[in-house]
Amino acid sequence: MAKYEESFKLKVVRQYLSGSGGSKSIAARHGLDYATVRRWVNGYRAHGIAALRGKGTSYDAAFKLKVLKRMWREHWSQAQTATAFDIRCAAHIGKWARQYHAGGIDALRPLRKGRPKTMSTKPTKPDVPLTDLDDKQIIARQNQELIELRAEVAYLKKPRCLDPGKEACGCAEKAQVVTGLRQQHPLAALLKAASLARSTYYYQVKVAEAADKHAEIKDRIRAVYVRHKGRYGYRRITAVLRQTGQCVNHKTVQKLMQTLGLRSLVRPKKYRSYRGEVGRVVPNLLARQFEANRPNQKWVTDVTEFNVHGEKLYLSPVMDLYNGEIVAYETSRRPLFQLVGNMLKKALARLRPGDRPVVHSDQGWQYQQPHYRRMLQVRSITQSMSRKGNCLDNAAMESFFGTLKAEFFHLNRFESVEQLQADIRRYIHYYNHDRIKLKLKGLSPVQYRAQAFGL
């Protein structure tokens, strides 16, 4: 029930008494119920402004009985009775009448608030003396006592309960001990030894079972995470699980990975700009359109550098923008033109008759060499270059380099350049054939190409 200030109530009452409107019109004007307006007016007429003041009065049984007798004697309604005795809510009078008819004057007395100081306990059945029992009853009692003693001894032998520092075991620990002994002893005897209620025991058993309901999917998540050496986050792991027929939500996988302490080891990628030398260049025909409708339609290439104990290794790959597959690559200890030339020869050898991809690169000096340009012209391949100092024009290739170094180079230690070369070869095979991409419907680049074109 809404509470109103005394000044507001008095204002409404005075408007009614001044004749400026009826109870319904005044109630509508102030957003009130017309019965509330009538109650305020009747209370003001009977008791003055005191009737408009809020009060939290508790009524005793004698007052309640007095109100009821007056209402029955005068044949008043509950509203009229509430006005006469300045009772704020007329519904209380009806409640008092029902209580009186059901239990008399005792039912009108207020109940004591709060919990009782002592819990009521059922009287225990006293033990019958042995002298009053026959032989069979004595044997049965002795057998029961023996069963309970054996259960108590077995319960106390548990290391957890024998440890002096852990004498006060929790309910969960007690339930775990009882569950372990249920095959050898009756449950009732074990619960008595553990001072554990039967309902509490079954509750703890249910909680323990519910806590481990994700045990199977946790094992699968951990297996996928280990197989990919920590490179997968929860999105890719979810895609792998769904491919195996496991129906699971990505939020569940994320929560379970947090519980297991698993997270992708791939570091956040940072943007670094570099302004190269200006030479003979060609227009930027790719124009950041990094999507392709079929294989061998758009290629991107670049060169990146690795450092192993002061020795450098250079990698020159070419990527197909249709599925992100590394078509060909070449490694070298020195950034000579042969690095790019050999890579281009391998890539051109994989083209089918009629394939004429657009090959995009930055404005590196290798891609401006006449020999490189002639190799493209012989195969009628169009060349495209990024604008000066704008690595975003070749963002697809830069993204691959970031993934390669984050998932492979920064997560491993290499003793030599030869080891790095061998591991790069293995990683690129893994990247093409095994590593799934969400934008490829959860397939690897080779799987996606084979599914769409059978190549």
TrEMBL record:
Pfam families in the record: HTH_21, HTH_28, rve, rve_2
Superkingdom of the organism of origin: Bacteria
Record-linked InterPro entries: HTH-like_dom (IPR025948), InsJ-like_HTH (IPR055247), Integrase_cat-core (IPR001584), RNaseH-like_sf (IPR012337), RNaseH_sf (IPR036397), Transpos_IS3 (IPR048020), Transposase_IS3/IS150/IS904 (IPR050900), Trp_repressor/repl_initiator (IPR010921)
PROSITE patterns found in the cross-reference section: INTEGRASE
Domain (Integrase catalytic): residue spans on this chain: 291-453
The protein's name: IS3 family transposase
